[in-house]
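#dry-run=false #mode=assembly
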Amino acid sequence: MTALTWITVLLSIAMFQVAIWPEQTVFENAVSLIELLAVAIVTAISGWRWRNVATGLLPATCVAMVIVCGVLPFAVEYFLKRPFLGIGSTGELQGAQALRNIALALSACAAHRQMSALAVLASMFLALFACLMPVTPLQYLLLAAYSLAATCWLVARHWEGINAQMPRHTRRTLPKRAAATMLAAVAVLCCVSWFFARGAGATLVLRGIMPSSGGQGDYDPFARRGVFDGEQLVSAKENAFSFGPVDSEIFLDSEEPSLFDMFQDMYDEPVKKNKRSERAIALPFRQMPTAETKLATQEQSGREFEAIRVGRPKTVPQLRDLPAKHVCEVIGRTPLHLRTHLYNGWDGRTWCWRGDAGESPLRMESDGNVPWLKVGSGYALSKTVVTEPHSLRCLRYDGAIVPTPVGTTKLRIADVDRADMFRREPDSCVAMDRQRIPRMTVLHFESQLVRLPALQAMPFAVASYVDLDRGEDGTKLNALTERIVGDLPRGWRQIAAISQHVREHHSLNMATRVPADCDDAVEWFLFEAKAGPDYLFASATVELLRRAGYHARLASGFYVQPARYDERTRVTPVLAEDVHFWAEVSPDDHNWLVVESTPGYATLEPPVGILEHLGRTLAACGSWARLHAVTLATAILLLLASVWQRRRLAYFGGWLWWWAGCRGSVRRHTLNTLWLLDQRSHLSRRRRRGHEPVERWLRRELPGNSSRPTASFCRLCQWALYGADRTCPLSMEQARHVCWQMRSAEKPFISMWRSTIDLRPREGAETL
Amino acid sequence: MMVSEPIATEAAFANAHRGAAIGGDSYRQTGESHAGGGCEFQPVLDTLRTALNAALRGKQEVTELVLACLLARGHLLLEDLPGLGKTTLAKALATAVGGVFARVQCTPDLLPTDITGFQVFNQKTREFEFMAGPVFSDVLLADEINRATPRTQSALFEAMAERQVTIDRETHKLSDTFFVIATQNPVDSHGAYPLPEAQLDRFSMRLSIGYPDRSSELAMLAGDIQNAGATAAAQTVITQQQLRRLQAHVAQVHVADAVREYLVDLAEATRRHADVPLGLSPRGLLFWQRLSQARAHLRGRDFVTPDDVQDVAIPMLDVRLSGEPEARLQLIRAIIGMVSVPVFTAAKRTTP
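#status=ok
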């Protein structure tokens, strides 16, 4: 059997190696063969060592070797081949190589019946994998040899398993235990599925359940076609709005005013006469589509079946448009503030923008081969600053101003490599140099987020605003500001205190309107109404921040709500009602930070790593522990004492139980005592073995096993357990006395040696 | 799971199978008095014990099991080397319990009718008369039973199981206290016919006597000199009527439900065990319960405990399992180790 197992496994490995040989370069094959050789040598040595391990548990080293061999291909891939050799394999090939190594390692234990079966099973999957690859004549030969060897193995296994004897009896019963286990497992599975799915479809729940099956957004440069998410989705052929948010589709011409017009710029072909025309960018010829199929428009997110790709005109369905109500969709972490307008002038009633942009001019910069539009200087990159990527797909957004995440440093639209396609608005927001951003345009952003410790340490420049002095009203606001700021150190703590004050002392009410005769809406909001819409929250925050000496301004745009995140499409839609106002503060008049004081709204924080998350949790636990220090300390001390004295506690508890139950009949008293001794033996880890009768156990455990009390107690126990209505061998007094002696006996049964009572069974002892 | 601490019976059997002497009186070390219980038959039993122990020195455990077999109305198979006292024990027992004693020396030419009896034509009366065989006795010693042919061995089937024989369509009742003691030599197997399973299942237990210990042998030698080579004459200590009453009394020993379930669990364990080709039969299970009752009575109790069940397990199962003696012993230990003794489950039933 061992030899057959080896032959079967080696043939499957040969099939596999022959199958993958053309798929890899010579260098890759050499590396793979070296790895295989190493595993084979280790396996051969181990196989010689474990040649006699036929049954029972496997040695731990054997199990470890199987695990190591299984992990080896992945380790070689990610720690050697990719970083140092610049080569790589697909995920499927790595898995198959792991299977190959496991089959080989299991062959080392081929003498073991179960391991032999597992090795052949693994070899079968390996052979199946090899058959899925392009088959060569040599593979046919190997496949025939493998089939022969596997058949021989099966026959040998069958004959080995036959026990040369007739069955003694047969029993046909319903496997109740197995059925109950199965039902319980199914019930648990259903509960777990329901808990995780909760109405979501199978597509969503099972997404990514198979490795390398795609759908997780992962990207692998060594993946085969159709594996992982690939470079992008399938490009559209002619109509720019046919498919999902892929950068390629916006290259195309359509009836809609497009950002690109390759025909107009590159060739003299007839141009589709659009009633509206705007600036476009030229694209090279190779990106011109060849298909002429009329395609439908799909504005919703998600992927569709690519029936049009195969070019079967008669089967192309009449696709219907799938309109979306979303203004735009965001891919990335939320909550997110998408800024569209800024305001820095405030007279108590109206916000406006005063002055020029004051920002650096727009320019393109290249990050690798990808052109990016530099829109902000940002902070110097360090561990305290996190770069956050976002993508935005414009749908019903009808404007040229780019909704930009606060803190954006650069943005990109695929193949738009000219800075003059954009412009700065007067309020320094970025806009495209056209009337509107084309529908379905995908914009990519990179913004910066600052970690909280860095924010708290950040120096904020002092700013003074001349329009703050508005008569007596300013006095109350100044006093309020001073009261909020108090003794807090200047910086983010003061800003957070102001934001927190506005948030906690006022309620959000979108229907509240400032009276027409009100001269200062902020003061009315802060001191009279105590409620209002979000712009009053933001205005009040800006006002208080400015009075505290900070650069602050009002911003409006869209608030991307995390609650709207669509798990199926993995985008967060932005609706028209998501317009929002918020305050912004700047430490240096260049980089701005969101100060969100409206209840129910939050700001995007830098991603928290596991360690940081752990630290936060620990800090929270620490603060809770400080608050309940006395209670906690008492509980811990009690717990430690209980653990330390657990045997004594259990001993005492057992004694209490015995004491409570010993007031009944002699039989109950005896059984209670027996239970007590059993519990004590359990505590001393010398519990009675299941097959051991009570008498033998008691005589073994009790030091005075030949003494009269022990013998009497044994007889008493036997009577109590099996004697039914037979006469008790001892009188009631004697029985209780013996039980009492046994109760007080621990490891050395000291009290028994002092016994002086006559425990001889009496004639005509009482019948209980 | 193995029984790590062999019980006294196991030790006796292990020593016997190894051909070594059994040292000491392991049974007495349990500290339990044989005279306990206050039964009216206890003096008779003590006398019987003494008589058997006098005939077979240093083998108290064996004599206890022989007595248990007798009280349980079973039959005994003694398997041991020649000269270890098999016949002596059988004769001493037959003499002690009184009644008719018969002995058959089994040989290959022994016929079934030589055991059961046969019809003889009386020339004088010109009628067929029945000549009763040795089976019509109270204690039958079948010496070297494996020397008889299977056909002759089978002649004992009906007699052992039903205490009757059928000859020429006529059924003859045997004694109520009919007790078969068969011996066989496990070493010399040439010209021997191993007993079939059906025959073995009719025995209650198989015992090996083993070599006596040093002190017993010294006492035996000294006794032989004192008696001037003459064999001490054994005396009858119990009448057949007393024996019948005693056997009936033993059959009334209480067996709790939990103990009965324990017995059934053990029987099922023998049937489930992969190394046991033929599990315990219901007849064997009945023997087991009777032997446990007898054992409990001999220990002065009127109810059976799992200790009693385990004490008789080895000789009782030994006769029903195949294989080498040491392997059989290991197998029985494994089977006993597989089944949990009812303790607190029994307590729940008995506690009001």
